[in-house]
Amino acid sequence: MEQVTTVGIDLAKRVFALHGADGAGRAVLRRTLRRDQVMEAVAALPPCVIGMEAGSGAHEWARRFRTLGHTPKLMAAKFVAPYRRNGKNDGNDAEAICEAVSRPGMRFVPIKSLEQQALLSLHRVRQGFIAERTGTINRLRGLLTEFGVVLPLRSVIVRRDASKAAEALPGLARRAIDDLLAHLRVLDERIAAYDRELEAQARGCEPAQRLMKIRGVGTLSALAIVATVGDARDFKSGRQFAAWLGLTPRQHSSGGKSRLGHITKRGDAYLRCLLVQGARSVLHTATRHADRMSRWVQGVETRRGYHRALVAIASKNARIAWALLSRNEELRIE
Question: What is the pTM of this model?
């Protein structure tokens, strides 16, 4: 058998498919393995490039394969799909991954460390609690509406008036509303605890401290960028980083005519959301400042409108963040 130089692995919960190719691109390895057999099989291979789709558990497998002397690379699943030649199954997926990882123009996902994933887990769980809190408030409003009590959308008013409105309701309904209010208080406490932990993490993270000097980048945004990106030098430029976050326009150009549409919305939706939310604060406070950034922000809003100005600010902040991280510099305020 020829020496394997490139391997594609289709990750799964129990059964993994491997496809290996030699230096000429010929298939020399096709295997189906159980989860507990993967490390032994990969350890027996010579040092090679191992491609995987960036899904659940991919970063952990990449870290393990790296300790064996291999070069793991992760790719978005949508970039792998065009290389699948036949119907979708595990073997064809592994072959497509093996083909895609060898393409010179392929864009890869940075491999996260254990610390990065642990930090991101705080963000994910906190976001889950926030979504659950929003759902609980909506459930309260919907339940009270069934009894003719219509509360405004503002959460402060719902918290304040729900208990008072429940006093006139039957006992069973009152009990349900009291349980929802108690659950809401528990969620508030958990979210506050996560906020305190993230603030403590930000105080001890020097790159996050540098990023927080950017207007519109706070504790959450700075920590999320540090945990998501890792080594910013994996990106060639700030524009590539902004494009990776989905903050650049989608192109529909042909025949020498350039047509730009809405932003692509690729990449990490959570990080993109944080940057856009931070852009809102920059835009809303721009009239109070006379610096170069504020003048530019007001000019963009005048020319292109409110929402495009938000995206432009978020994209600019992403590029500034890339420059600070990749060059290990402090923000120079003009």
Answer: 0.86
